[in-house]
Amino acid sequence: MSQESRTNADVTLTEYTEDGKLVRKIRSFVRREGRLTKGQQLALENNWANMGIDFDKQPLNWTEVYGREGHVVLEIGFGMGASLVEMAKNAPEKNFIGIEVHSPGVGACLMAAEAESLTNLRVMCHDAVEVFEHMIPDGSLDTVQLFFPDPWHKARHHKRRIVQPAFVEMVRKKLKIGGIFHMATDWENYAEHMVDVMKAAPGYENTAQDGDYIPRPEERPLTKFEARGHRLGHGVWDMKFARTE
């Protein structure tokens, strides 16, 4: 998958020594702002008041955010937003929220959402860890999605991968009991890394019935890039882990 198609999840990871001393904070994603097209800029101006959520160190009330009750599905790093918009369109009974640091992607997502007249989608343009820390109530999410994050495929960069023990524990706290953490990647080595981290993490259970992975669920749209990859024999690995405690 191209770099432009990667999940743009700008997450600050904290590294410690064995005795608990802070070593440094590292970013799992190198910010690539890019330039907004006129359409993206207009979509931001026209739709942010209705669909955008500004960062604030106050917990969100989902009923107030959406004006109704409903399952809350949060996606970390939605890229240009095509699949997120399609999921929101296909499941109008659910409430979707996407976090993305790439402003052209946010603008593109709002353009698509406006074209579909969606009312069940909200977006944020901020660091995901800070949003989780300050704005997402514990035990309030039904699903967290992380699709095609940057694999940081060089071994010396593996520590920058977003799926790390502290990250998955952060996600677990925000999920309801029985809530799902759904990941997908087109890098087999990263898929194996994800499974290893999740197996070691407390309070999770793999929902796969045969092996570590699941077939692509119907609710996750097949992207054009992914379809092309399938034709070329490339693999994609989906994983769903449920919060158990």
From TrEMBL:
<feature type="binding site">
    <location>
        <begin position="223"/>
        <end position="226"/>
    </location>
    <ligand>
        <name>substrate</name>
    </ligand>
</feature>
<comment type="similarity">
    <text>Belongs to the class I-like SAM-binding methyltransferase superfamily. TrmB family.</text>
</comment>
<feature type="binding site">
    <location>
        <position position="150"/>
    </location>
    <ligand>
        <name>S-adenosyl-L-methionine</name>
    </ligand>
</feature>
<comment type="pathway">
    <text>tRNA modification; N(7)-methylguanine-tRNA biosynthesis.</text>
</comment>
<dbReference type="GO" id="GO:0008176">
    <property type="term" value="F:tRNA (guanine(46)-N7)-methyltransferase activity"/>
</dbReference>
<keyword id="KW-0808">Transferase</keyword>
<feature type="binding site">
    <location>
        <position position="127"/>
    </location>
    <ligand>
        <name>S-adenosyl-L-methionine</name>
    </ligand>
</feature>
<feature type="binding site">
    <location>
        <position position="186"/>
    </location>
    <ligand>
        <name>substrate</name>
    </ligand>
</feature>
<keyword id="KW-0949">S-adenosyl-L-methionine</keyword>
<dbReference type="InterPro" id="IPR003358">
    <property type="entry name" value="tRNA_(Gua-N-7)_MeTrfase_Trmb"/>
</dbReference>
<feature type="binding site">
    <location>
        <position position="75"/>
    </location>
    <ligand>
        <name>S-adenosyl-L-methionine</name>
    </ligand>
</feature>
<dbReference type="Pfam" id="PF02390">
    <property type="entry name" value="Methyltransf_4"/>
</dbReference>
<dbReference type="InterPro" id="IPR029063">
    <property type="entry name" value="SAM-dependent_MTases_sf"/>
</dbReference>
<feature type="binding site">
    <location>
        <position position="100"/>
    </location>
    <ligand>
        <name>S-adenosyl-L-methionine</name>
    </ligand>
</feature>
<protein>
    <recommendedName>
        <fullName>tRNA (guanine-N(7)-)-methyltransferase</fullName>
        <ecNumber>2.1.1.33</ecNumber>
    </recommendedName>
</protein>
<comment type="function">
    <text>Catalyzes the formation of N(7)-methylguanine at position 46 (m7G46) in tRNA.</text>
</comment>
<feature type="binding site">
    <location>
        <position position="154"/>
    </location>
    <ligand>
        <name>substrate</name>
    </ligand>
</feature>
<keyword id="KW-0489">Methyltransferase</keyword>
<keyword id="KW-0819">tRNA processing</keyword>
<dbReference type="InterPro" id="IPR055361">
    <property type="entry name" value="tRNA_methyltr_TrmB_bact"/>
</dbReference>
